[in-house]
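Data deposition worksheet. Section B asks for the primary sequence of the deposited chain exactly as it was used as input, without tags or linkers unless they were present during the calculation. Section C holds the resulting structure in C-alpha cell form. Section D is free text for depositor observations; keep each observation to a single sentence. Incomplete worksheets are returned to the depositor.
Section A, Depositor: J.P.
Section B:
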Amino acid sequence: MKIGSPCLQSLEGKHVLITGGSSGIGLAIAKEALSQGAFVTLVGRSSTKLEKAEQILVKDGAAIHKISTKVADVCVYETMAKAIKECFEWRAVDVLVCNAAAATIALMDEGRIEDLHAMIQTNLTGAVNTLHVGIPLMKKRSPQTPMSIVLMSSLSGLAVLYGNAVYTATKHALKGLGETLKLELMPYNIRISVVFPGFVETPMLDYCGIEDDKDILHIIKTTTMYNRSQSEKPEHVAKYTLEATKNGTFLVTSQFSGLVLSTFSRGPMPAESFGRAFVELILFIPMRLFSFLAACYVYYVIKYRNNKKP
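Section C:
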C-alpha cells in the first residue's frame, strides 16, 4: 500500500532543469532523463564544461533540440534568477533538480574559512536561490499538473562525515528544507524528493581532498567503510533519483546503508508505503543496538589516533 499516487507517469516530453549539470551526478541525471524522452536544461558556472557536457549528451544519442544550457552561479541570486526565468520561457519546468555542491575535507578549525563559506553558499544558499526563483514559476501552473523538486543531499545528511562538519551541516539542512517544502507545496501538486547517495565516483571526490590527510582518511574509512574503488556510479544514483521523482518518493537512498540510516533519521515524515515502514520498524531496534556498539568503536579509534599524535 502506497501513500498517495505517482507524481509523474513518465518523463516523456517533460522538462528537467539540473543545477550542477555539467558533470557527475547532474550530467548522469541529464543522460537518464533524455533516454526517457525528457528535455533537459543544464545550469553550471563554466561555459566550457557545459559545452563539453552537451557534446557528451549528443554523442550518446540525445537530440540537440532537447538540450539547453545556462551559465549561472547558484551562489549569485541575480544570475540564477535570470537563468531560471529563461529556462521557463523555453519550456515550463516539470522537474527542478538542485544538485550543485561543493566539498572540502578538513577539520573545522583547520580548514580555510573561504572553503567553509563556499560549501554553505553552494550547497545550501545555492539551493535556496534556485528554489526562491523556481517555486513561484512552478506554482503558476495548474494544480492538476504534477511537478517535482529534487534536493541532492548525501548520506552525511542522515549521519555525519568526519572531517567535514560544514558539509555535513549543509546536507542535514537540505533534509530539513525538504521536509518543510513537502508540506508547503502539497496544495500545488509539487512533490519533494531528497536524495541521499553515498560516496559517488565524480570529480568532487578528486578535488575535495579526501585522500590528502591520512589521519582523517583513516577515520573516514573506519566510520564509513569508504573505499574509492567501491564508490557508487553516477548513473546508478541518477536512475534511483528519477524513479523516485516519478513515484513522488520523499526520502531516497540508493544503497543498503542508506536504508539503515533512514531508519534512524526519517523524522516526522512517514514512509511512502506500508512495506517500507514495516522494514524500518523491523530494523530499528537491532540497528539501534548496533549503532551503540559502532559508536563506541568509532570513539575509541578517534581517541586512539589523537593520542598517537606527537
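Section D:
The chain has ten helices and seven strands.
The CA atoms of residues 93 and 138 lie 7 Å apart.
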